Amino acid sequence: MNKQKSFSEQKSALYLVPTPIGNLSEMSPRAIETLKAVDWIACEDTRNSGKLLKHFEISKPLLSHHEHNQDVSIPKILDRLEAGESVAVISDAGYPLVSDPGQKLVRTCVEHDIAVIPVSGPNAALDALVASGLDARHYLFYGFLDAKTTKRVKQLEALRDFPYTIVFYEAPHRIQAMLDDLYAVFGNRAMCLGREITKLHEEFLRGRVDEIRQSCDGLKGEMVVVVEGAPKQDTSVSMDEALDVVARYQSEGMTTKKAIQQTAKDLNLSKNELYQRVMRAKKEEE
């Protein structure tokens, strides 16, 4: 067991410090104080972070720490910490580790009994969630879906029946394709698209997936997509009735797979459960 008392132990520590996602006034006093107090600051891009630190008159030596150099950067950071120095980790924007590098570093520090102390601050996912108008009591933060359509669709299919609100990150050049796949797999659920959060052109598009995917062409800025969870299944539709619908779609020329997908979507049924029932009915006929 690893037991940590963050404010009563005077020793070196790794601080996770969030930075503004757009609005510099959201940099908290504690975040500034922490960055001024540590011995080193580990950051994704020393040029971007250098501008931020200069704005807040923070002058500390920087360590490059990003997704592609962790094997080299983590031992260097660990050496500093074990020598009794303190290190803060920041990302280019927002909270470290949330769709940003840092998880492996934190795990390594925990394994070496080095304190890991979080500092509260900006987070685009939570900003979008609470402003979405959707249920924020229970939610799943998923982050980025795969950039390739085939893998992205499989990931969405695995989430299709999740009953709670889901939060995704997405890049502007992929938002159209992502929403097209979301509509195909999830159906026309309620959603919110937040972009440029905390910045001058902050915007929230609230509505149904179909109308928003037809309104996102040309939108810029990092995107947060918040989607309502899977609705409760309508138990008024029997599985036998669903089989009749599948058979009708098949008679119209659909493949079995497509007929099952469309029926499940129409009747708000589990695609996997319907598939198993169709296969079982087929065996019974044989």
Keywords:
single chain, 286 residues, alpha/beta, Cobalt-precorrin-4 Transmethylase, domain 1, Methyltransferase, Cobalt-precorrin-4 Transmethylase, Domain 2, 3 domains, 5-stranded parallel sheet, 5-stranded mixed sheet, 41% helix, 17% strand
Please describe what this structure looks like.
The protein has 286 residues and is α/β, with parallel strands linked by helices. The protein has three domains: 13-122, Cobalt-precorrin-4 Transmethylase, domain 1, CATH 3.40.1010.10; 125-227, Methyltransferase, Cobalt-precorrin-4 Transmethylase, Domain 2, CATH 3.30.950.10; 239-285. Helices cover 41% and strands 17% of the residues. The chain contains eleven helices and ten strands. The protein has helices at 29-37, 46-55, 70-82, 103-111, 124-131, 149-159, 175-186, 209-213, 239-251, 256-267, 271-285; strands at 13-16, 40-43, 62-64, 87-90, 115-118, 139-144, 165-170, 190-195, 203-208, 223-227. Strands 3-2-4-1-5 form a five-stranded parallel sheet, sandwiched between helices. Helix 2 (46-55) links the parallel strand 2 and strand 3 (62-64). Helix 9 packs across helix 10 and helix 10 (256-267) packs across helix 11 (271-285). It is elongated and about 75 Å long.
